[in-house]
């Protein structure tokens, strides 16, 4: 079944700028889709429309078989991980991960179970009482992912999640993301500038330029026959 369907999606910003033009893509369950393309080509705009953080000017967006154009972000079955992983500095790791669930009025005992399960998957069990400032960059990034996975969403959106990490940590986190994808069986859409990340993580790569999809292909086909 298609996990996500983008049909003739357009985005024109209020100043008249057309950031995304006739974007069409059917994403199957458990795919790992990579968006690549030069800065300003519309990758983040597309992710933000999927997340519901940016209004869709025209076209149809479906998650599963539900049209979600007018559905609020919190009611879409989606979680987003940003590159600057804005954690709440005054909250513990536990509370950072629990926050979104509390907003959704999930019962406390269930929150506790979900947070601890996510902490186990991400190896954060011993860090639950810490504040973000007492964590390394990689640990913070894992908390940011933890915040996303506690909700067990159908689709994860990741906008250059590793770009602020040093090279060594990036390699390590790339492996963790790959494992996470397999373990969760979730659909992921991932924006990156890093060709190694695109090749090793992606099941399909979407190449964008000036708001237009240029090519959609497997990493093998794309990088062997450019
Ligand atoms: P990418 O993620 O590929 O770098 P973006 O989706 O962030 O690109 O931006 C696509 C284009 O839309 C850019 O030219 C950017 O300047 C423009 N843009 C982004 N946000 C706005 C906005 N709020 N108003 C007008 N133009 C915008
Ligand atoms: P609130 O943040 O709403 O004040 P509490 O601090 O009372 O909530 O915690 C609610 C539940 O969450 C507790 O019963 C506990 O099981 C769990 N919890 C809170 N912090 C931690 C933590 N650091 N490690 C493990 N479990 C925690």
TrEMBL record:
One of its GO terms (cellular component) is ATP-binding cassette (ABC) transporter complex, substrate-binding subunit-containing. Keywords: ATP-binding, Nucleotide-binding, Transport. Residues 4-226 form the ABC transporter domain. One of its GO terms (molecular function) is ABC-type transporter activity. The keyword Nucleotide-binding applies. One of its GO terms (biological process) is carbohydrate transport. Signal peptide: none annotated. Transmembrane segments: none annotated. This is Sn-glycerol-3-phosphate ABC transporter ATP-binding protein UgpC. It comes from Fusicatenibacter faecihominis. The lineage of its organism: Bacteria, Bacillati, Bacillota, Clostridia, Lachnospirales. The chain holds residues 1 to 226 of 370 of the full protein.
